[in-house]
Design brief:
about 140 residues; about 35% helix; about 25% strand; globular
Length: about 140
C-alpha cells in the first residue's frame, strides 16, 4: 500500500510562516498559528511543505488503508487560507453559517482574510474539529 503523501516533515512551522510573501496572508497565518495552538494545546508541525498542523489522529478505512493526519491545520495559499479539519464535526454546519465570508471545498474551509470572519465562530470550529478528529475519528 502506498504511503501518504502528506506526512510530518520536521521543518520549522515558524520559519515557514515567516517566509510567507504576502503581508496580509502572513499576518493571518501567524494569528491562526497562535489561535490553533491555544485552542488545541498542541504545538504546530509541518505536514508536507505547506500545511501547519495541530494534533494528530489515526484513521483506518474499510479498504485497509490507514495512516495519520493533522487533527486541524491550515495553509497560507496564494488565493486564500486553507483551513483543515473544521468542516466534519456534527456542529460544523451551524458554526460555518456564523463564520462569515468563506467557501467550503472537499474537506477544507477557504478564507480570504481573517478580518472577514467571526473569530468566535472560528474558535468554536477549531475546538469542535480538534475534538472530533482526536476522539470520534481517531482509531488507535
Amino acid at each position: 500500500m502506498a504511503e501518504n503523501k502528506t506526512q510530518v516533515t520536521g521543518a520549522s512551522p515558524d520559519d515557514f510562516l515567516a517566509a510567507v510573501d504576502h503581508p496580509v496572508r502572513r499576518r493571518d497565518a501567524l494569528r491562526l498559528r497562535e489561535l490553533m495552538a491555544e485552542l488545541t494545546g498542541e504545538e504546530p508541525e509541518m505536514w508536507g511543505p505547506t500545511i501547519v498542523g495541530f494534533g494528530r489522529y489515526h484513521y483506518k478505512y474499510d479498504s485497509g488503508r490507514e495512516g495519520d493526519s493533522a487533527a486541524v491545520g491550515f495553509s497560507p495559499r496564494k488565493a486564500s487560507l486553507s483551513l483543515y479539519g473544521l468542516s466534519a464535526a456534527p456542529e460544523a454546519a451551524e458554526l460555518l453559517a456564523r463564520l462569515g465570508k468563506h467557501k467550503v471545498g472537499a474537506g477544507c474551509v477557504y478564507v480570504n482574510n481573517l478580518e472577514d470572519i467571526d473569530e468566535d465562530a472560528l474558535a468554536a470550529l477549531i475546538r469542535a474539529g480538534y475534538r472530533y478528529y482526536t476522539t470520534v475519528v481517531h482509531q488507535p
